């Protein structure tokens, strides 16, 4: 899948090109809809500032990651609601930029873990998950069920590790098993499943 880097900031584009050079990206110095489908686009939020929501929706028919030099949760929500597949810091570590590309290539959403936690907390019903949703967890072991409920509440891997007195590595292993058994991609999808 072809990669496009869209930014009006020369230094930022140069940084992205340096990091992602092995993917042979095409750079765009301004907003453009002239991108063949299917493609992955990593776009600076600055080039999207004056673009209408309707035009953004057209851009987001591609697999688009928005990168911001000043990330905010409200901006992430706006772009994700319009159809972007990811949101993050324009200066994120190079390994994260590769993770972004891989996630989008696989059709997955990419968000910083802190943003995922904030989204989960917004949708979470703090009283109790719905009874019907709890029945779906019957395919899990008792420990996986405990981990799933904590993940669905917005707990981080470290918080679950501390609460259940298990290693973070074990929490991650349980998380992978949970996602596989429930046929979901991540903890945001788990939270949505538990609270629908």
Explain this structure.
With about 200 residues, the protein is an alpha/beta fold. The protein has 10 helices and 6 strands; from the N terminus they run E-H-E-E-H-E-H-E-H-E-H-H-H-H-H-H. The protein folds into 2 domains: about 1-110, Response regulator (Rossmann fold), CATH 3.40.50.2300; about 120-195, Arc Repressor Mutant, subunit A, CATH 1.10.10. The chain has a 6-stranded parallel sheet with strand order 2-1-3-4-5-6, sandwiched between helices. The longest helix is centred in the last third of the chain and has 15 residues, at about 170-180.
Helices and strands, in order, run as EHEEHEHEHEHHHHHH
Level-2 CATH architecture of the largest domain: 3-Layer(aba) Sandwich
Report the span from N to C terminus: 34 Å
Count every helix, treating DSSP H or I runs of 4 or more residues as helices. Answer: 10
Percent in helix: 40-55%
Helix and strand composition category: alpha/beta
Sheet of most strands: 6 strands, parallel
Strand content: 5-15%
Report the oligomer: single chain
The CATH topology assignment of the largest domain is Rossmann fold
- Uncertain stretches of 5 or more adjacent residues: none
Number of E-type strands: 6
**CATH superfamily membership of the largest domain:** Response regulator
| Domain module count | 2
Spatial strand arrangement across the major sheet: 2-1-3-4-5-6
User: What is the alpha-carbon Rg in Å?
Assistant: 18 Å
What would CATH call the class of the largest domain? Answer: Alpha Beta
Overall body shape: elongated
Average pLDDT rating: 89
